Amino acid sequence: MGTSNADFFSNLYLHYYYGSYTRCGENWKEYHINCPFSKLYYIRRGECELVIEGEVFRAVPGMLFLIPAHTKHSYYHINTNYIEKYWMHFELKTGDDQALKSLGLPYYVTVSEKEPLDDLFREIITLSRQMDLASRMQEKAAILKLIGTYIRLSQKAGYTPASPLHSSPEGDILRVIEYMNSHLSSKITVAELAELMHIHPNYFIRLFKTHMGVPPLNYLTKLRVERAKSLLENTSLPISHVMQQVGFDDISSFSRFFRHYTGYNPRQFRKTFCAPQ
Fold first, then answer.
1. I want to staple 51 with a disulfide (CB 3.0 to 4.6 A). Which of 12, 74, 176, 268 is the partner?
2. Are 49 and 73 in contact (CB under 8 A)?
């Protein structure tokens, strides 16, 4: 059953995680991932390939990609012409819905030089670093303007957005993922997550893997890696504080963990990818 535009906006939830302008080096690649947040990639220089739900896209300057949450995708370079891109990770939903996926938008649109996308991304990134209420409200308004621009460009290309849908069967799983995201600094167990759904842990593991493609603790690890990368890249927090925010209390263990999943120790990663302040 569809919802009206009024219902859609009255139930809208928007949360910005992080974003930046980055030159992606040779290690920028990941395969068959399924993130709990949505992504926007605006390619400005270079080229790469994105595979979204099995469809291969050659990404070149001027292409703006939208990857809704819980969409299986891969990304990798195809030569040494490494890309530079604006990017943003965020969450947009209505109730239990992932609103963007239900709209049925294309995975990319082509942006003309007349579109002030660079300015809009820069505005969002700048506002995200401010802590006052006005900046938070302006940030959300700028993100909605960016998404509105994406929808308008998709309409120009001949796509008609679908009506947003009500909650899906994955609602309980999404609530578990939200719990994971808000408790990354804690020791989380499978039993604890299963209790959120009031089911046996063994059944919970099978159910989660059916929906998300990986067991719950593997998914939790992915969230911790992404949070650590974001904090190292976009903040000046001491590494010891980053470590604590993703559930570690020993710097050696955290460094080994981080290197295993990224190929860098935390200090090297920050030096290589840290966004200019």
1. 74
2. no
